[in-house]
Amino acid sequence: MRTSNYPNLKAVLYLSGGFFLQFVAVTSAISVVSTTLRECGFKNLGFYSLAVNYLVFGLCSLVAPPIIRKLKPILSMTLGSVCYDIWLITLSLPAILLKSEKLKLYFSYNQVVAIVLIASIIMGFGCALIWVGQGKYLSDCSKYKIERKGVYSSIFWFTFYISSILSSILAALILGSYPQEYLYFICFIISVLSKVILISLPKIQTEEQDQQLFQNNQPEQVDLDILKLITDKQMIVTYGVFLTSALSNGFRMSGLFSFLTLTQTNETIQNQFKYASYAQALFGIGQAAGSALFGYLSVKLKSNFKLTQGAIIVHIISYSSMIWCNELYKFGFLSFCACFFLGIQDSYLQNQTQVIMGAEFKQTTEAFAIFRLFNSVGVTFILLIISNLTNSERFRQFIIGSLLFSIFSQIIMIKLFKFRQQQGDIAQDNKNQAIESLIQKC
């Protein structure tokens, strides 16, 4: 593999490593928080915490681009990571309060709820910084080799999803033997370690290059602001896929773990947590497999249009397995298979949106901000819906509805979105960017 053919590959690997550690910690907590806080007597606080987090995440995505331009992606992602730490350490408070009579003298039930929700707001702001910054940084890594976006995206998400596997195993091992506050404390320590890699990311001098291109009247369209891009016809067509991704994210975070525990009526609470976490590890394996599949297809097909067609097949397989699992409504081998296929779908969607935002739009920072806005607000409302899924019939309605909407959104993309590869200008884009790069060096 020649370095010249894969520019900034080192930066992609560093970024992947930093997010690997960060989300081993965060995903371990997110996947179980709705259930564990309920067991502590705080009812739906876990759902509300995640819903508030994603709502703030979406709203802050609107103001994230100017902050990221000012601070640069590396510092922005590091500060966002610190916001995750605050949320993680706060989650241990309800469990500790349940066991400590002394703490109950200082913290009432409502005060604990307020503290967790405030930490969720802070985390939501951090999510906007770290994810919009990630989208900008990863997109910049292939700025002058646009056909590498699919490969770089698959590398990042493959590593990210390996962290999902380990996070499920970590949660299973700890919750199966120790109190839940141990899990949150260990997650906090791992999250702190991720800062070492994030702050050490290699710098990519794209902001300065973009500014020079603007001064030379190059076709970067940097004058179009985020509000205008929101109403752009091309962007509007993608909103269905954004919400499809939100359906997958919301179910992964809260619905899947709740579903897996509900199907184990004869097991103790600790065993329910343990077995559900192990099943979610198959979800992570599916995510890693889906990311590798997407990377392979992106190299072979060289077309986001064809990759979007493939997404329909992925939706049908994954949701069909979940429907079958729901009809049995009993934990077993099929539960692991359904988790695996859902993982493939989740990964495919993440890679699809990453590549579309990075390759199909000139303004990558604003494009990723809009994606995060719609995705996060969508997750907020989906989490509220999932909090009411308490039996087989409700899960059936949710899963079938998700399948139909996912297929519909992909068909809209296929029919109405003007993919650059379809227009035959991918080669011309690379030629223009190569000329621009030479101009910068001269």
UniProtKB/TrEMBL annotation:
InterPro entries: Ion_channel_UNC-93, MFS_trans_sf, UNC-93-like_regulator. Keywords: Glycoprotein, Membrane, Transmembrane, Transmembrane helix. The chain crosses the membrane at residues 12-33, 45-67, 74-97, 109-133, 154-176, 182-201, 236-255, 275-297, 370-389, 395-414. The gene is Contig5013.g5364. This is UNC93-like protein MFSD11. It is a multi-pass membrane protein. Gene3D superfamilies: MFS general substrate transporter like domains (1.20.1250.20). GO terms for cellular component: membrane. The keyword Signal does not apply. It is found in: Membrane. The keyword NAD does not apply.
